[in-house]
Amino acid sequence: MKGYLRRWPAGRLLPALLLAWLASGAAVGAPVDGLYTATVPVADEGRAERSRGFREALARVLVKVTGDSAIAAREGAATALADAGDAVQQFGYLRRESEAGEPSLALEVGFAPAAVEERLARAGLRFWPRERPRVLVWLAVDDGNRRFLLGADGSRGGALEAALREQAKRRAVPVLLPLLDLEDRRRLGFADLWGGFFEVVLEASERYAPETVAVLRLGREGERWRARWWLHDDTGETASGAAVTGEREAALAAGFDRLVDQLARGLAIRAGGEGVAARLEVRGLEGVTDYARVTEYLEALDVVEAVHPVFLRGSRLRFDLRLRGGPESLRRAIDLGRELAALDADADAGAAGTPTLIYRLRP
Fold it and tell me: Model-level pTM?
């Protein structure tokens, strides 16, 4: 459990009102939703089918929380999936009607986060925190007859947009689509995307301020489709690859899976690893509300195991933290949250040699 200890040096006690605010536990931040829920089709409401549904739903949740589309085939996955019903927090049935008008049944399952993460730790698997980068996706399509770009206005490729958004939901990744308005079209065209002129793409992406930029290029090759992908993350690292399959939407899903797998590799942390100590100072605070806002925000970060306020002087509040992924994971999580702005990270090393990460509170 995350928490904080009221371990304050003598003479530096917070006001009682601040302690009351810190004890309130109000959530701050906007991590991705639905990490621990999944909906799967079932044939009936019988016990055997429900048990199968629990396992399939947990397998889908593991894809989201590890960032690995092939997690079910990994060593240790069988351990994480065993007795899936023991990790269920709640479930219910949904009755639907197919496009052909035939009734269908689905099982909606919510798993206990602590139980899922404990399974990951036992199996030696990695965990992708809820603080995730927004991915701006530029999608170019060449079906042999026409060439077009997919934008947020939905004017073209409606089925493709639906498939992309469904895939993003399945992977629990926040996705942006470009407007493709006059400004975008002035900056780049189909040839820039298809030809791999990625510097042009990055310049056109600046107006959206995404943490990650992705390019997907779908092209028909006879009876099959190829999805080529390119990824540029917030550290400046790039990666690329391709996926080939028969159907257009399947190729899109496969390409998107590959780029998300790549993105998650750099962001996932070891589940259940020993906590890492770090020190963080936030400046520019103006009273009790700001003190509470910062503390609650840090407690809400998945990479933070424990928050201990240790020093308060004027507008400066210092914390000792225990982390699940190390200082770099903390920096990236804070950058994604946009609640704090870095001032001078790694300055002011303390007596124990632990560097202090220094931030200011954004308005």
Answer: 0.81
Segment (H or E) for 27: none
Q: Is the pLDDT of residue 16 over 80?
A: no
Residue type, 148: F
Q: How many whole angstroms separate alpha carbon 124 and alpha carbon 238?
A: 27
Per-residue pLDDT tens digits for 30-70: 468 899 999 999 999 999 999 999 999 999 999 999 999 99
305-327 per-position pLDDT tens digit: 999 999 898 899 999 999 987 88
Task: Give the angle subtended at the CA of 61 by the CAs of 322 and 274, to the nearest 5°.
Answer: 20
Bridge partner residues of 94 (DSSP): 106
Which residue, among 275, 317, 309, 295, has the nearest Cα to 7 in the 3D structure? Answer: 309
> CA-CA distances (angstroms) from residue 275 to 55, 269, 321, 325?
30, 11, 9, 8
Q: CATH assignment of 135-265?
A: 3.30.160.100
* Residue ranges of domains in the chain: 16-31+272-361, 37-127, 135-265
